[in-house]
Design goal:
The structure is a single chain. Strands 1, 2, 3, 4, 5 and 6 form a six-stranded mixed β-sheet that branches. The chain contains five helices and six strands. Helices cover 44% and strands 19% of the residues. The protein has one domain. It is of the alpha+beta class.
Amino acid sequence: MKSILIVLALASVLAAADKPAADKPRVTREALAGVEKSTDGAIRSWDVTDPVDLLGFTRAVYLPGYGVVFTTEVNLVVTMMTPMSPPLTGQKLVQLKEKKRQRLTFVRNWMRQALIDAGGSLDQVPPGERIVYAMTLFYQYFEDHSGMPNQIVIEAPRQALADFKAGRIDREKLDAAITAWEI
């Protein structure tokens, strides 16, 4: 009987240890939804005369102990496919690839600014956790996307983003805290 009580006591201590402390910030769904919507709106307004194709909505997930991850998928150049229009070939495909390549510089810079903005607005994310943006780039089956990224990921500690927003660090220190890679 005594061993059962010890096991129960130990189990309750372990269960309590797994529960988040009441004083830890909690990232709300509303806060994430606000950044998701502003991200989608910004992507739609990149170039109204030659828009990108936002494929679905930006989604965010909060991972306690890690941070917030935003994901979105875009086609950098709208390529309409209908039964009446054959796939692009030859010089048109080369032009399409070059246009997408040119837009990549803009996308990388935009993602960096979106990261800074999200880090400045998501005060509920603990300073030691991260803010991440992952953008998947869509290609049609007939496109040559050799040498082009399929995904761009950029991340930074929320503390560095908050420090930059508050003027406690300069752009050089922020840039040192940001990690970006392409797959």
